[in-house]
Amino acid sequence: LFLLLLVGIVWANYRFVIENPGGNDFLVHWVGTRSLLIDGISPYTDTVALRIQNMAYGRPARSGEHELRVAYPLYSIFIFFPFALISDYPIARTLWMTLLEIALIFLVFLSLRLTNWKPKIWMMLLILLFSLLWYHGLRPIINGNAVILVAIFVVASLVAFREGRDELAGILLALATIKPHLVILTILFIWFYAISIRRWKIVLWTILGVG
Fold this sequence. Notes:
Layout: H1 2-19, H2 24-39, H3 46-57, H4 77-84, H5 89-115, H6 121-133, H7 135-143, H8 147-162, H9 166-176, H10 180-196, H11 201-210
Helix pairs in contact: 1-5, 2-3, 2-4, 5-6, 5-7, 5-8, 6-7, 8-9, 9-11
């Protein structure tokens, strides 16, 4: 039943992708990662930016338009490289959307575990439905934004920290820094609390993970 459901989700995503071109947040890093892995070109160059713009706009970006440049740290390629190995962009985007949808559901369960909340089945179904369909869940899926994965890394880190697995918590925080501007204050807050209770490992493993 799970496999049939997964196949159905993939098929629905593929139909959506074919009928609704876009997903520029994913396109930027798909092209950037492919350029680095296949062509050996830095994803931060004008050459790669031009490739992305031509795929997104059909031409170079005009004045005032988003230049669609790669802005994530270089180690973010570890997240994108399995999809960058797929040469067909619609298929790669389909699988990426599927991953984000599964990740969003997983994020719900992680959050419930973190808060020790055990809602009734009908409430759980409503929460899952809301999580997939509200603006901040649906928009990242359509655009292909990795923010959903960042959220999972942060929440999973908090769960690991609470359970005394400081090394894992630090590594998960390091993974969350693929979008550093979103998590820097959260990480500093967690570090401050960890240092205050003399649990230095999470700080050390975050730094080692980023390194």
